[in-house]
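Sharing a chain and its predicted structure for anyone who wants a worked example. Both blocks are below, sequence first, tokens second.
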Amino acid sequence: MQMNEIDYGRARPIDGYGPGFFRVAGEVHRGPQIVTADAVAPWAGIEDRESLVALAGQVDVLFLGTGAEIAPVPAALREALEAAGVGVEPMPTPSACRTYNVLLSEGRRVAAALIPV
């Protein structure tokens, strides 16, 4: 099997995660985070719709990492994101991190809103 190293360019991949933290582009961030190709920002959690809606125009899809287990997106959050033109995909946080990195490596306009495991 041939292995290819991924080049993210200037984008910020998620290098790792653990109990209560994420490592993004080599830096450790504690608590819930919003990760985009350009930035990492603390996130107040699922109730903080405004921070996610503010991604409109910058990203096409948002991966919502819901912690160790998958959880549904609250209807009000889904409606607000869809009205802003942002697709949302809920999944367990480990899956959201991996999926974000794959699409980021393809140059896609993605973001991840992550609740720690």
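Comments welcome. The radius of gyration is 13 Å.
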